[in-house]
Amino acid sequence: MASVLNVILPVFSLILAGFACRRLGLLGPNAASEINRMVVWLCLPSLLFEAMATVVWEQIWQPGFIITYGLSTIGLFVITLGWRLRRTGSLIDASVQGLSASYANTGYMGIPLCLLVFGKSGMEPALISCLVVICLLFSISVICIEVGLQGEKNLIKAVGKVSLALIKNPIVVAPMLGGLWTTTGQELPASFHQLLKMLSAATGPCALISLGLFLAHRHKGKSERGIGLVVIKLIAHPLVTWVLAIYVFHLPLMWAQAALLLSALPTGTGPFMLAEFYQREASLVSNAILISTLGSLITLSACIYFVGA
């Protein structure tokens, strides 16, 4: 429990900092949106580009783990997307909510937790999960949102509009450019790499502060609490991952345990970033993040006890 608290408390502290800044009048009513736009246009693209441009493929090429974690994560995104699409009738809202049920907080919580539990050997599965969640899952959700935004019935025109929108989207373009850079075999220029690191480091804290700002002046009236999304994230995700890891792909024990732990993480801030950026109803997403983060105290502790760490 102490290991989990050490990772989760900073998350709550940053959310609380944003909440307090808004309530005390230190930041204005538009601060949440403006900070979030900075994250989407500067910090997150830097993180995605650096992740893809500096990755050592030989170290993270673990097909069994990649398929296991990728299949459970993207599979639950697709299932939730279909469920929420039938309920809301909006591909945009369904995409954001599907992301809320499958987007684990791998970067801000997964890496330190894996290092605490598995030592240095936990870094590789944590890094792979970050790439799956941040680069692959996030990009798929953005594509779905852009498709929903176009609303074009003509297939050719729809493909053209979506392609143009994706080319303009930094969240999709950044990892693609980073992947192209790796093909050159060259290291990033030192000054540019340092700039990317500085912007990347701001992604998590700024997104959490933005979430706290939003919660301080969020919607009035009744709203969905997102319990269904939380149940999928904290219970269904790790169960599906464990079944795939042990009974389907027969992963080595440490990799199977890491996959379980990483899939049991709460919802990260990615869905909230998209909800705010695309001006969708963010209350359901913010509820899912808060409830899943609190609930992960129990689920993560149970997983750590289960793996015998």
Can you describe what's shown?
49% of the residues are buried. With 309 residues, the chain is mainly α. The chain has 15 helices and no strands. The mean pLDDT is 84. It has one domain (53-189, 223-307). The protein has helices at 2-23, 31-54, 57-60, 63-88, 91-102, 106-118, 123-150, 155-167, 170-182, 190-201, 203-216, 227-248, 253-263, 270-277, 283-307. The protein starts with a helix and ends with a helix.
Order of helices and strands: HHHHHHHHHHHHHHH
Shape: globular
Number of strands: 0
Main sheet: strands, sense, barrel:
none
Query: Low-confidence spans: pLDDT under 50, at least 5 residues?
Result: none
What is the total number of structural domains? 1
Based on helices, strands and strand pairing, what is the structural class? mainly alpha
The end-to-end span amounts to 11 Å
Query: What value does the Rg take, in angstroms?
Result: 19 Å
Query: What is the residue-mean pLDDT, rounded to a whole number?
Result: 84
With helices defined by DSSP (H or I, 4 residues minimum), what is the helix count? 15
Instruction: Bin the helical content.
Output: over 70%
Q: Which band does the percent of strand residues land in?
A: under 5%
